[in-house]
């Protein structure tokens, strides 16, 4: 099962959106800067603030790209407060 996730770094006050099938490994890799050239290298205190289960990788990638295209911290905060927004986005896909 794939998952959409949103991380937050208190030290940088930034969010990061991604998709994975193993969230614990992914958070560890972000905090250890395992991804060369990644946005998450700006901090090492990334915390999971949202985990949304998807039917498959295609759904997770679709949601990830949708959120990133919005380029809105406020939209991300709304999703965190009300994850059912993501179900609505998928239903209109």
Explain what you see.
This protein is of the alpha+beta class. The chain has a 3-stranded antiparallel β-sheet, with helices on both faces. It is 43% helix and 23% strand. Strand 1 (3-9) and strand 2 form a beta hairpin. 23% of the residues are buried. The two termini are 19 Å apart.
Structural class category: alpha+beta
Major sheet: arrangement of strands: 2-1-3
Which sequence of SSEs, written as H and E, runs from N to C?
EEHEHHH
Beta-strand level of the residues, as a percent range? 15-25%
- The total count of helices amounts to 4
Helix content: 40-55%
Beta strand count: 3
Largest sheet: 3 strands, antiparallel
**End-to-end gap:** 19 Å
Give the key terms.
93 residues; alpha+beta; three-stranded antiparallel β-sheet; 4 helices; 3 strands; 43% helix; 23% strand; globular
Question: Can you describe this structure in just a few lines?
Answer:
This protein is of the alpha+beta class and 93 residues long. The chain is 43% helix and 23% strand. It contains four helices and three strands.
SSE inventory with pairings:
Elements: E1 3-9, E2 14-20, H1 23-31, E3 47-53, H2 57-70, H3 73-81, H4 84-91
Antiparallel strand pairs: 1-2, 1-3
């Amino acid at each position: 099962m794939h998952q959409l996730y949103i991380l937050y770094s208190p030290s940088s006050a930034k969010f990061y959106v991604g998709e994975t099938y193993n969230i614990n490994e992914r958070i560890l890799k972000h905090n250890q800067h395992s991804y060369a050239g990644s946005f998450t290298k700006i901090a090492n205190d990334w915390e999971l603030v949202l985990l949304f289960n998807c039917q498959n990788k295609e759904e997770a990638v679709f949601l990830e790209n949708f959120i990133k295209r919005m380029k809105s911290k406020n939209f991300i905060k709304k999703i965190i407060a009300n994850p059912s927004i993501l179900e609505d986005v998928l239903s209109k896909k």
